[in-house]
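User: quick one, fold this
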Amino acid sequence: MMLNRFWRTIVAAFSLCLAPLPGLQLAFDLPFDLLADPSDEPEQGWMKLEELLLLDPLPDLMEGEERSAERMTSSPETGHSPTPMIAPSPSPSPVPTPTPTPTPTPTPTPTAPLLPTTLQPDETDHQTIPYQEIIPVVLEGPGWIFAGAREGGTVTLEDRLSTGSTTIFQFALPAPGTYTLFFQQQNPYDGTMRIKELILEITPPSTPRGLTTPLASPGPTPVSTPAPLSTPASPLPSPTLREALALIDRGAYDQALDTLQTLLSASPDDTLPIRAQLFRLGTLTRTPDLIARHVEAASLLSPPVLLDALTLLLDTHTYPPIPSILETLDQAPLTPAQREDLLYYRARYYEEAPPHRIEDAYDLYRRILETYPLTQRRKEILSRMRHLERHYLYVR
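Assistant:
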């Protein structure tokens, strides 16, 4: 029995060593049952060759067995059969790494811009302006830009206009108080920067608006409201004219017109006072033709009446009598507010009436903004200037 087991081991070793040679493999592929002892029983502890080889195969024997199995599966008789894939052993599942909790970033507190606080101004100016919704700032010279304010977001730049010789800014301020504004201007030749600090003292709106400096008196009544009208410079020639003036004061304009026309036809010599009252009646009744027929008497009327007549004539596009009224107002003593009105009406006349003196109108609009920076017509004037620039002056 020991001898049979020895020969069986020798034959199995030769079979594995000669496995790469197909012919020799068949020669030594002997049935192990012929060498087995019939008295061998599996239960006596003896293992078959297959079980013996599975215990601890040598590396070279295992490689030979793999090559032999590969040749046998790819032999011409059987054809190629796929080598069964050995399922990989499952890898251990990775231990989940705890995700770190993100630390919330603190929200920065809004602060005022740092630029104005670091500027070193070349000059400092102080201005006191009564409060209004839009505060204008006029700087001499072109090319100024707004650099910021110490108050941060409390100052809002609404508009900026460069007129060639000046730069005009419009700011919206929340309330009266003290505001520090910074402006920059760069020299285009050497690149140097000029910094200006402007301290605005915004007072409550107790002073009259529309003027550069406060006046000692409240000033004249605005043109848009009824103003007391003057009487002719010369004494009234007859009681009938006095009656016509009384009718005008009471608002009986139709009766006053009939009375004045009767007096005009009955007094061919001295008609200038009567014509002046007809001119005045034309402004009250909004009749531009009546003003145009009696414009020669404009010198006898007060500036408020003449300025009201200019408004009516421009709105109705009745241009022929306007030059005579403008000439009369040039010789009359006017308040600063009336001077501003005169510049405005003249600029409108140059813009609207033929032959349309566009450049002269533009210069007058700019002069108003420079001379009267607190004018209530600012938005309207800026709109007209942009219209002229877009359609006439800077057309490409």
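User: anything notable?
Assistant: The chain has 15 helices and seven strands.
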